[in-house]
From TrEMBL:
HAMAP family named among the record's database cross-references: Rel_fac_3
Keyword list, A-Z: Cytoplasm, GTP-binding, Nucleotide-binding, Protein biosynthesis
GO MF: GTP binding; GTPase activity; translation release factor activity, codon nonspecific; translation release factor activity, codon specific
Subcellular location: Cytoplasm
Similarity comment: family membership: Belongs to the TRAFAC class translation factor GTPase superfamily. Classic translation factor GTPase family. PrfC subfamily.
Entry protein name: Peptide chain release factor 3
Organism encoding this protein: Cyclonatronum proteinivorum
Tr-type G domain ranges (all copies): 22-291
Length: 540
């Protein structure tokens, strides 16, 4: 194994690999349902040139139930998007937008997807400010220290004033918001956006539902304000605010931005396309190029090393006729080519990647090559687990996917007492796939197991798959746990918590210790007893 100081094994393809990597931006949108993620995604495609006209996706959304938003866009527009990654290209930059399902689909998968992204685009509804799901997703960004770029949406509707939005972001998330754009008027008076970075005021002309790019006139600040159809008092207030924020972005500490401690904030309306031109122009430069990952020998790997990547998501086909499984791999280094032979984790056998595809929808287009930052969807021959490293050449291992703390718990047993063995086997398999956490029931007797998930829908998925794949009909019993924290493998801390107030210590099937608390008060007592630094929300 080479040392950190040794030169990376640069092959003859190194230069093209670095060149390709430089032109990629891999990001995920973090938002609360209804903030406008779907609308903004569609508009990114419109401004990115992937579609010529954006349509209202309203009726379809109502009709499609649990289907992915992007699948709906795909059906409507006939373009290639997927439930997991959407690719578009603008001005020579290839964007990989990773899906972070929300609503009922919110699960640990959503959180894990953020581990495969190099930055996050946080979309906030201007009337509602930072909401619950955004907070949860933001915590993962904070844990990873990745850049977060904010788009405050729906400025064409009455909402908070922009200064209020900034203080809302700061107080809810503890991140320093830095104005990168500023809205001129709001609600029905929303007429333009000041580009703080480029120091120009864009005035927009409304198009019906923003089906096409907005007609825009670009002015110097004073001239633009003079041209706006707004009252003098509104103009004056706007000029004062601009005076206040005009240097903020330019004075932002790049380190604060790169480590996710400061976020540039854009304002606009995804529906009417106001502010999108400014946002996209600067997003290209703000979104980082593919990051370099550190492997579990603490070596920072070079992007131009032979191919390696990690599995961040496994998607089983729920159709019993096609019980296949797809593994989503984030390319960390090198060039992936169709037909290459790869190794997985510690297994010695090589697996030939004959049919990698970029898409999950009905139309699976085959992928010939992929570079750092790209996502490859591979048929899972059974060897891939969540967090698996896939590599060519010298062995590599990335430990990048943490255990996320489950938020919902339920006790599970088999209705048929003779299928206890299958119950355990099936749940073990599903936990390896990252579908559910499985624990011994604290002080449990009999053959029950405790299940923990991030989203409640996962319990239904488990029930369905256990019946279909293991012929186990599950029986669920509610449990009263309020919250949980992973624990270090430290006997002293574990035994202290075993006797703590309303606290139950147990282990998952891989022997990871966890504490379950009956109430928020019990958690606060535990924090006093062993310190917050020993109660993990994320565990590597
Ligand atoms: P999501 O994917 O984050 O859940 O949000 P989505 O884009 O579907 O948008 C949610 C609703 O907000 C949609 O209304 C959409 O048209 C609207 N919306 C999105 N961006 C803007 C904006 O910039 N301005 C305004 N005024 N509205 C916006 P909807 O389809 O009518 O749904 P609903 O409100 O009936 O639920």
């Amino acid at each position: 194994m080479s040392t950190a100081a040794a030169p990376s094994p640069v092959g003859k393809n190194a230069a093209p690999i670095l060149e390709e990597a430089r032109n990629r931006r891999t990001f995920a949108i973090i938002s609360h349902p209804d903030a406008g993620k779907t609308t903004l995604t569609e508009k990114l495609l419109l401004y990115g040139g992937a579609i010529r006209e954006a349509g209202s996706i309203k009726q379809r959304k109502a009709a499609r139930h649990a289907a992915s938003d992007w699948m709906a866009i795909e059906q409507e527009r006939g373009i290639s998007v997927t439930s997991s990654v959407l690719r578009f290209e603008k001005d020579g930059i290839k964007y990989n937008l990773l899906d972070t399902p929300g609503h009922k689909d919110f699960s640990e998968d959503t959180l894990r997807t953020l581990v495969a992204a190099d930055c996050a685009l946080m979309v906030i509804d201007s009337a509602k400010g930072v909401e619950e799901q955004t907070e949860k997703l933001f915590e993962v960004c904070r844990m990873r220290g990745i850049p977060v770029i904010t788009f405050v949406n729906k400025y064409d509707r009455p909402g908070m004033d922009p200064l209020e939005v900034l203080s809302n972001i700061e107080s809810k998330l503890g991140i320093h918001p830095v104005a990168a754009a500023w809205p001129l008027g709001y609600g029905t008076d929303f007429q333009g956006v000041y580009d703080v970075i480029g120091r120009k005021l864009h005035l927009y002309i409304k198009a019906s539902h923003g089906a096409r790019e907005a007609d825009t006139e670009i002015f110097d600040l004073e001239e633009g304000v003079a041209n706006a159809q707004l009252s003098e008092s509104v103009k004056e207030a706007f000029m004062e605010e601009c005076e206040l924020i005009r240097d903020e972005f330019h004075e932002m500490d790049p380190d604060e931005y790169n480590t996710g401690k400061a976020t540039p904030v854009f304002f606009g309306s995804a529906l009417s396309n106001f502010g999108l031109d400014i946002f996209l122009e600067h997003f290209r430069n703000l979104a980082p190029q593919p990051q370099r990952y550190t492997d579990n020998t603490e070596q920072l790997r070079s992007l131009d090393e032979p191919f390696s990547g990690f599995v961040f998501k496994l998607q089983a086909n729920m159709n019993p006729e096609h019980r296949d499984c797809t593994a989503f791999v984030r390319v960390a280094t090198g060039k992936f080519e169709r037909g290459i032979e790869v190794k997985v984790d510690d297994l010695s056998k090589k697996i030939r990647m004959t049919s990698p595809h970029t898409l999950m929808a009905d139309d699976r287009s085959l992928l010939e090559v992929a570079y750092p930052g790209d996502i490859v969807a591979l048929f899972n021959p059974g060897e891939f687990k969540i967090g698996s490293t896939v590599y060519k050449g010298e062995k590599k291992k990335y430990d990048v996917i943490p255990l996320f703390t489950p938020e919902h718990f339920i006790k599970a047993s088999s209705k048929d007492p003779f299928r206890r063995k299958q119950l355990r086997e099936g749940l073990q398999q599903l936990s390896e796939e990252g579908v559910v956490h499985v624990f011994e029931v604290p002080n449990g007797v009999g053959n029950e197991l405790l299940l923990g998930t991030v989203g409640v829908l996962q319990f239904e998925v488990v029930q369905h798959r256990m019946l279909a794949e293991y012929k186990v009909e599950m029986h669920y019993t509610p449990v009263p746990y309020h919250t949980a924290r992973w624990l270090p493998e430290n006997e002293e801390i574990i035994s202290k918590l075993k006797t703590a107030f309303s606290t139950h210590v147990t282990f998952d099937l891989d022997e990871n210790p966890i504490a379950l608390f009956d109430s928020a008060y019990a958690l606060s007592q535990a924090i006093e007893k062993v310190g917050e630094e020993n109660l993990f929300k994320f565990k590597r």
